[in-house]
Amino acid sequence: MNRGLEAYRREPGPDGGERKPVEGTPLCDVRRPTATDDHPGNRPEVGSDDDLAIVVRGLTNQFGEQVVHKNLDLNVRRGEILGVVGGSGTGKSVLMRSILGLNHPQAGTIRVFGSNALSADENERHRIELNSGVLFQDGALFSSLTVAENVAVPLKEHHKQIGDDLREHLVRLKIRLAGLPDAAGDKLPSQLSGGMRKRAGLARALALDPDLLFLDEPTAGLDPIGAAAFDQLLLTLQQALGFTVFLITHDLDTLYAICNRIAVLADQRVLINAPIRQVEQFEHPWVQEYFHGPRGRAAQRAAGEDA
Fold this sequence. Notes:
Elements: H1 3-10, E1 52-63, E2 66-77, E3 81-86, H2 92-99, E4 107-112, E5 115-116, H3 122-130, E6 132-135, H4 147-158, H5 164-177, H6 194-205, E7 212-216, H7 224-241, E8 244-248, H8 252-258, E9 261-266, E10 269-274, H9 276-280, H10 285-292, H11 294-302
Parallel strand pairs: 3-8, 3-9, 6-7, 7-8
Antiparallel strand pairs: 1-2, 1-4, 4-5, 9-10
């Protein structure tokens, strides 16, 4: 059992409020979920379109002559793990940055838990920031800060009232929650392996107990064992803590292992947003090549589906 998850259940949140009791799930199994696990390679839909974490309507993003998105619509349901896929240049990261308010689109609306993500109102933006955690590619840690100092950054920014002792305690708790040993907190990012940097970035993303987690290629660059372990960790945390996940990935094994639905970006829009078996059957050249090429068939077999 992950010590951080067990300790997390007993601790107050950064705002001092009580945590919701959750059921435990072991983190020691680094296999990706398969046909013998809880939901075999075809995880069920969760939530409904009546309870949405993110609502994007009519989004248009353009850089000079290049139109990346045009009239793009997307629903992300509360409590689901949504996998976002698409070819190079389809604007997956641009979409994520737009939802986070880091990119201002030319047209469209974005609402996150009911708040306007494009609002100039600082209070509205602050509510979204408090409810969001982000893991950028390769962790995007501050190279001159230790892991513990990196994890403490969101707490210092948004919870200045927390004393040093409590903040240090919460930081160590998040590090354990991400599956890292206590000793990792005193290391610089350059002293960590690629997998450990990803977990350190995850610890920082979880610092504020977010209801919404954004992940950009979290398993890129990891070996198969490390990628499987990260998938299992994310799934366990999501099931235990109930947050919503917006997951950009090219990793077919990740899509089959942990995602409830898949949103496919192509032709400047979301082609389909559905469970993976429905996406597999969608008639579009990129979708067919991606899910039914050699790697797609291998991922299906690993997930226990018929090739």
